[in-house]
Amino acid sequence: MSATNSIILGVGVGWACLTAAVGAIAVLKEAKVLVWVFMVQNLPQLAFFVYLMYTVVMKLFHDKSYTLEAAAVTGALISLVIKVVLVWGLIRLVHSFGQGLRERMFAHSK
């Protein structure tokens, strides 16, 4: 693994943890501003997929093995579908803020 990929991997894990924490707090506190911060925090992942596709295409011309390329494209497409579903779910969630979701979620059951 190259030094660049090691750095991206190390920063990416920390960034993913930070993004997950902000997303959880945004949902629990019903904070619209934090939801949008969470959405903006997902943009670097999309930029990474563009970088990944660029490196895959560049490597495609040098190697005749397509296993790595197929795995990278499949992973990027799955992640893109997850991001689209996430945006759709968050927009629906933001429209539900203030309708007593927090109270129902933390209500003591009898």
Characterization of the model:
The chain has helices at 3-29, 32-41, 43-60, 67-96, 101-105. α1 packs antiparallel against α2 and α3 runs antiparallel to α4. The protein has 5 helices and no strands. It is mostly helical and 110 residues long. It is elongated. The mean pLDDT is 80.
The SSE string, one letter per element, is: HHHHH
- The structure class reads mainly alpha
Q: Tell me, briefly, the overall form.
A: elongated
Number of E strands: 0
Keywords:
mainly alpha; 82% helix; elongated
Question: What's this, in brief?
Answer:
By secondary structure, the chain is mainly α.
What's the layout of helices and strands?
Layout: H1 3-29, H2 32-41, H3 43-60, H4 67-96, H5 101-105
Helix pairs in contact: 1-2, 3-4
